[in-house]
Amino acid sequence: MYYGAIEAGGTKMVCAVGDEALTIIDRLEIPTTLPEETLERIYAFFDQYSLCSMGVGSFGPIGINPDKDNYGYILATPKKGWTAFDLLGNLKSRYSIPFAWTTDVNAAAYGEMKRGAAKGKKSCIYLTVGTGIGAGVVIDETIFQGLGHPEMGHIRIRRADSDRYEGTCPYHRDCLEGLAAGPSLETRTGTKGENLPEAHPAWELQAYYIAQALMNYTLTLAPEKIILGGGVMNQGHLLHKIRRQFIEQMAGYMDTPEVNEYIVRWQLANESGIIGCLLLAKEAV
Amino acid sequence: MYYGAIEAGGTKMVCAVGDEALTIIDRLEIPTTLPEETLERIYAFFDQYSLCSMGVGSFGPIGINPDKDNYGYILATPKKGWTAFDLLGNLKSRYSIPFAWTTDVNAAAYGEMKRGAAKGKKSCIYLTVGTGIGAGVVIDETIFQGLGHPEMGHIRIRRADSDRYEGTCPYHRDCLEGLAAGPSLETRTGTKGENLPEAHPAWELQAYYIAQALMNYTLTLAPEKIILGGGVMNQGHLLHKIRRQFIEQMAGYMDTPEVNEYIVRWQLANESGIIGCLLLAKEAV
After folding, report:
1. CA of B148: which chain A residue's CA is closest?
2. Which of A76, A104, A124, B284 can pair with B98 through a Cys bridge, CB separation 3.0 to 4.6 Å?
3. Which among A125, A156, A224 is the top mutation candidate for probing chain B, defined by the most B β-carbons within 10 Å of its own β-carbon?
4. Quick one: average pLDDT of B258-279?
């Protein structure tokens, strides 16, 4: 009994086959190029196996409302060739098996809840801070979605008084993603995040913005845990700055778990998404 | 077959008895004074009926996690005598019937979804802008709650450049409630909202803040409808300003319903909460 999983990113595609215990027995990572050639390589990989189901966590925005015509599609994306591409439909016509379909960050949130940092909990938010900022939400052990999937990386936040940086978001200019994703950190400072000294004031600003978003998410969703992932979070000191800022901004208002338990790093790291996809595949059977 | 309902507000208590069709057959409104004397009057009213269940929507914050000791309690509130008062426990020891217990705004959201502005939908946010700002959320026809109930009135929002007003929130000073609830409108302008001319710039500011919150809620929860209630929303022109601001700020990013369908006024008006409580009572049987 094998399960298939695809973590479809704008940069690379991670494909995996898992056994009954969801141990990964084979794996493929390829760059995301044009849809057709990318799919050819994905097919070549999965064609080797007899799969009973597949879980796909995709970069977005994607259509996730089964009542809509765009269900299973990649929606407006800057990634060349992928806008309005029917990713799920293509996969389904290749493999006549049950599919689970969600966003990459939802899959990661699910993976972390079942097997990672939120194990034993019933709800969590997973926030990735990297090239972009995106979030997945699990509530009552179920991936949360309303009319569409959350786009929480684009909420508007308060600027720090001193901050005059214009922001990088093509839609909102200076929303959370526009002010605090990796590219803004680099443009703002002229240095890549990984080379920026710990004492650089840009980190405090980064923490201020992320903590503000976490506060707003907490006041809205009240999850049991918030899990932070993504390249920018590889700076260990940033987590501590975020926790400190969160406590200060929340001002004791809401009864959240102790901050070191509440705001944590991912545990499955780069595997959160693909493991989440495998879990969803198994449940789709 | 009678159902009881209490909309417990910090200013007044509305009690109602509904028949099988949930038509209100008797009703009591009393000021909220100290807990014991308020309860005496509530008991005197409900003692006249043989009720099969009761729904309570209370001012908050309240304990809503059944696994916690403070379930059914009013938590930290400025309302004298009510902090740490076991409202649900007291009611339960008077009446041995099933109870539904939620926040006043959740009850209103539920009422509006079942019988008001969001009838036929499965999800909505109800936002009241009055003495305070509070929100209730229904997702998949179920009242949404995480570890606690949402406190979305306290999210941090971006200030307008021109706005130097310090804000009225005792916890966060200039969160959404601190900048845009009724009292801030009055202190900011020196005039009660209902006497403030339509052309006063404070209304545009008001719309800017509320629309910003609605955008952040939308990006997080993606509901089918947002319903606005509360005293400040009695100014009809404000709704139009909010819709315009919402479109401008969202910048076409998310695929929401057409704004005149999406952001609407309450339909049950002051009855949303009590009708929601009756509906919840009936379901609690």
Report:
1. A222
2. B284
3. A156
4. 97
Q: Per the domain annotation, does B222 fall within a domain?
A: yes
Q: Write the ipTM.
A: 0.95
Q: pTM for the full model?
A: 0.95
Nearest residue, CB atoms, B220 vs list A150, A157, A255: A150
The tens digit of pLDDT for each residue in A25-81 reads 999 999 999 999 999 999 999 999 999 999 999 998 999 999 899 999 999 888 899
The dihedral through the CA atoms of A209, A215, A217, A223 has a sign that is positive
Place of tokens 């009855």: B271
Task: Tell me if B113 is assigned to some domain.
Answer: no
Contacts (Cβ under 8 Å, ≥6 apart) of A195? none
The crossing angle, in degrees rounded to 10, of helices A104-115 and A272-284 is 90
> Which one of B147, B151, B159 has the shortest CB-CB distance to A224?
B147
The total domain count for chain B is 2
- For residue A21, the model assigns a pLDDT of 97
Choose the mutation target among B141, B156, B163 for the interface with A, i.e. most A CBs under 10 Å. Answer: B156
Measured between CA atoms, how close is B21 to chain A, in angstroms? Answer: 30
Across-strand partners of B266? none
Give me the mean pLDDT over the B78-103 stretch: 96
Report, in this order, helix, strand and coil percent for chain A, each rounded to 5: 40, 20, 40
Contact B147 A212 (CB under 8 A): no
> B136 to chain A: nearest residue by CA?
A220
Q: Which amino acid is at A194?
A: E
Phi, psi of A122 (to 5 degrees): -110, -10
Query: Before A61, cis peptide (omega within 30)?
Result: yes
Chain B contacts of A61, Cβ < 8 Å? 254
Q: Please name every residue paired with B67 in a beta bridge, in sequence order, or none if there are none.
A: none
Q: Domain limits at B49?
A: 2-107+270-284
Q: Which residues pair with A33 in a beta bridge?
A: none
Residue B273: C-alpha distances to residues A51, B5, B32, B107, B202 (Å): 51, 9, 16, 5, 29
Yes or no, beta carbons of A223 and B146 under 8 Å apart? yes
Is A159 within a domain?
A: yes
| Domain co-membership, B130 together with B246 | yes
Closest residue in chain B to residue A160, using alpha carbons only: B158
Provide the number of CB pairs (under 8 Å) joining chain A to chain B: 112
Q: Look-up: residue for tokens 């699990």?
A: A138
